[in-house]
Structures are given as structure tokens and as C-alpha cells.
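User: Could you check the structure of this?
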Amino acid sequence: MSLRHLVLASTAVAAALTLAQCGAGSSPTEGPTPPVATPTPTPTPTPDSGLPPGMTCNPTPPPILRMHIGVFDDSGGRKVLDSKPLVANVDNYCDRMGFGSWKFCDTRPEGHPERVACDYLVTGKAEDTGRWGPTWFYGSDLCAYFPDACANHSSNQFMAVAKAKGTYEACAAEGWPVASNGTRCGTIEIK
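Assistant: Sure, the predicted C-alpha cells are below.
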């Protein structure tokens, strides 16, 4: 587990414990305890969940299972990495999209007119650039912190430029729906 993920998990536990303590120790003379709001589940994206104008994805894909990362272009010391979200085959989604009865699949086949919009719905927006697509990390920190090693692609957030050896990670947006047995990230080791 990366340091970033460990910090996020620790913060979540501390917040939960703090919330659990709210109202503890109150006495009957203090009046009634206000009701505790129940958390609302993260909504599943809809066919036009804030997508750029003109883009649609219907039917919407299930939540992300993981990000798949590969080398798109290898120019020796500089490699262009490409990522794509994979989704679990929920309610025969993969079969309905033409992939067959696989355990997981892409959001749409390559070249499908809704592929980009569906990938957007599964990943959300990058935390550092605000563009649709995954957030890229080098080691456990944002690529932006290591300009000599890693860079976001200039026009496609699903791509990054690897300029050094090491571990690269692409992650869907925090708070975005994730399959029950999935993860929002994918990694690749460049040697």
C-alpha cells in the first residue's frame, strides 16, 4: 500500500472515530440529542453525468474494477503510457457491449462513438489537472512533483509520459464508484 493510500485510510478512520464520539457523554439535562444523518451512498453515474456537451454513454457502465496500464509508445528513455478503465461484468454488461461473457471488459469496444464518454463516467476527473481521466502518480506522489520523471500527456489525460524507471500509477477520481472487489488504480513498473 502506498504512503498516499495509507494516509487516506488513516484519515478516514480518524474521521469515523471523531464522528462516533459526537454526542458521547451528553446527559439528560442537555436536551435531546439531534438525529445523526445517515451517509448517502455514492450515486452511480447516469448517461450524461456532467459530461462535456454532446457526449453520452447509454447504457452506463458498472463501476470501475481497475485501471489497466500499458506502454503505448517506447522511444527508449521516454515511454508514453496509456490507461483504460476496466469494469466488472455486472448484469451481463460485457456481453451486451459485444465482448462476450468475460469477467471484466472495457467500457465500450475501441472505436465505438461512446467509448470516450463511457471511460469518462468510470474514471471522473484528475485531481491535479481537472481534465476527464485518471490522476497519474510516480511512486506515491503526483507526477507533477517529478517533472524530470513523469508528465501528464498534453492532450489526453488517459496517457502520461514516463521519463525514468520506477512505478507509475493511474487512478480514477476519489469518491467515484468502485466495484466491490475492485480498486480505482492500476500500476506499471518501468525498468
